[in-house]
Amino acid sequence: MTDFSLPFEDDDAFASAGLRLTVDLGALVENWRELARRSGKARTSAVVKADAYGLGIEDVGETLYGAGARDFFVATADEGATLRLYAPEARIFVLGGIWPGMERRFFENDLVPVIASEEQLTFWMAVLSEYGDYPCALQVDTGFNRLGLPMDDAIALADDVSRPASFAPVLVMSHLACGDDPSNAMNRQQLEAFRKVSAAFEGIEASLANSAGIFLGPDYHFDLTRPGIATYGGEAVPGMANQMRPVATAEARIIQTRSVKAGETVGYGRALQLTRDSRLAIVSAGYADGYMRSQSSAGVPLRQTGIPGGHGFIAGHKVPVAGRITMDLTIFDVTDLPGNLVRAGDYVELFGSNISVDEAAKAAGTIGYEMLTSMGLRHERRYISEEAEE
C-alpha cells in the first residue's frame, strides 16, 4: 500500500490547474473609468448580470463599487441578493423584473425591479397598494421589440392622473437595437422615440446607452449610461479600434505533445488530414469549458464557410487548432515552433492579451459576450489588481 503519510507542501491551485482564468481587476476599473469619462455629464452604472459576464459577480461587483459605481444592473433577484453583500449602498436594478412570490426577496435585499410588461405593471400596482411606496424602474420599448411597455402605453401611464401616488419610478429606460452599428438609422429613430418618453416622465432619470450607445455621443447619454461588454474589455463597436484593456485571460495546460506523420489524420471523424510531418499539443480545454466546437480547425466540415479556425498563443506565437474541438480537449498544431518552446505542462492562451476575446469569438462564429459567459466551472480563477490612478 502506498504511504501517504509523508508531508506535502500546500498545492498552489492556480499554478497546477488544467484550466485557469486570470481576471485583471485593475484593467476592469480603468475600463469603467474610461467609459465614465466618455459618458460626460451622465453617471455610469455597472452591468454585472450573468455572473459579471462570467468573471465573478462577487469580485467584480466589489471592485466596481470600490471604484465608485453606485448603480448596478443584474438579470435576476438572486444575482441582486448576491451583489448586495458586496455593494452595500448601491442601487441595484433587476432587469428581469418582479413576479408574484418574489416580493420578500426584493424587499430584504433592497432591489429595484425593472417593470417591463403590462403583466408586471399590474402586479406591481397591487404590490404598492399592499406594501406602500417602493422604487421601481420602467422599461419602454422604442423599437427593439424585446422587453418594455409599448411607447404609447408608457406615455399614457405618465399622463394618467389616476395612477397610484405610490407609483413613482426612479428611472425610465430603453435599449438600443443597433448601437453597435453607428450608421444605422434605427439609432436615431430610437433616440427620438426615447426623448418623447423621457419628456413624458419629466423629472425622472432616463437611461438609453449601453456600451455601444456611449460611443454614439452625448445625445444618447441622458442621465445614466449602462456599459456592459466594454467594461470587461470586449469591443463595443465592431470595426472600431478597441481602446479597452483586456480583463480576462483564459489558459489551458498542455497534457501531451506528439509527433504525427504526414498523411495521418487527427481527432474525431478523421476530420483533418495532415499534409506534413507535424507536432501537436493536446490541451485540457474543450466545449464544456466554453472553448466552442465551432472553433475547430479550418477545413473541418462543421465549420461555417469563410470563418477561419481558432488559434491559441504560446511562447510568443499563434498556433492553429488542429481537427475537432471535443468536450474536454483541444489539439493545437505547434509544428512551426522550436521543439524546446513547447512542453507538456506549459499553458496555451485561449484568449487574453495576445488573442482578444473578440478574435476568439469570431473564429467561433459568435461574439465576445458569448465567449465570456460560456466559460464552464473548471477554470481555476485568480484575481489580480494594480492600483488604478484616478
UniProtKB/TrEMBL annotation:
Residues that coordinate or bind substrate: R146, M327
Keywords attached to this entry: Isomerase, Pyridoxal phosphate
Cofactor: pyridoxal 5'-phosphate
Pathway linked to the protein: Amino-acid biosynthesis; D-alanine biosynthesis; D-alanine from L-alanine: step 1/1
GO molecular function, a single term: alanine racemase activity
GO cellular component: cytosol
GO BP annotation list: D-alanine biosynthetic process
Domain Alanine racemase C-terminal: 247-384
Residues modified to N6-(pyridoxal phosphate)lysine: K49
Enzyme Commission number: 5.1.1.1
Function, as annotated: Catalyzes the interconversion of L-alanine and D-alanine. May also act on other amino acids.
Database matches in PANTHER family: ALANINE RACEMASE, ALANINE RACEMASE, CATABOLIC-RELATED
Family note: Belongs to the alanine racemase family.
HAMAP family for this protein: Ala_racemase
NCBIfam families found in the cross-reference section: alr
Protein name (database record): Alanine racemase
Species: Rhizobium tropici
Top-level taxonomy: Bacteria, Pseudomonadati, Pseudomonadota, Alphaproteobacteria, Hyphomicrobiales
